[in-house]
User: What shape does this take?
Amino acid sequence: MRWLRISGRLAVIVPLTIVTYLTLVVVVFPYGWLKRISRGPEAAGRCVGRWRTAVFHAWAGWIAAVLGIRFQVEGRPPSPPFFLVSNHLGYLDVIVLASQVRCVFLAKSEVAGWPAIGTICRAVDTIFIDREIKRDIPRAMGRIRRVVDTGRGVVIFPEGSSTKGDTVMRFRPSLLEAAASAGHPVSYAALSYRTPAGSAPAHLAVCWWGEMRFLSHLMGLLAVPRIHASLSFGEERIQERDRKTLARRLQYAVEERFQPVV
Assistant: This one.
């Protein structure tokens, strides 16, 4: 039964992802080039950006359904343009959040080099950042501001790494520089997962952390019959000009809504 479930889900996820990627490459990008000729680069960037996030949003919703994700959503998701921060439990967070809001993600630069996944991330306009190179942070922050200026939302995981869900790690102020310097209010959300009785616990089957190998973890995730995702959006937006103060306030706000996985 385990391998039957894994095979069945892969048989849907793989072609669905290929079709989504081809839609971007064959339809959305050429449309953007035509728009650039007729309306100029700014209008083209805004239009193509919104189409990319719309296609990504639809794909995430379909994948969530295939994976048997049951949502418990509290609060109201922000409307674009927005900055949104959340605790980080693993790669499934991207699907969960993208299925609820139309957005672009900030991701570590290593993801860009992952086979297939890196290509797809670039196609949906993921912003990559190398946190080990200080001069790369201003470049990434500039990209974030341009995305928000085109009327889209940006999701940031300020912990900088995924966890097993026992606590919320300290938020890194540098990742919030774009919002702080622009004085832009920041929305926040808290994520948590549960698995049904008899399945592997969520902190092992869903959360991806430590030295877990991606492929073996993915197979375990695909084998889980259902995943209960709890997503709690904050009611207010937090605004601070000082990035350290902004990071502290957002961390406290997420901690108040966070339900430990472990």
In short: The chain has a mean pLDDT of 94. The chain has one domain: 2-257.
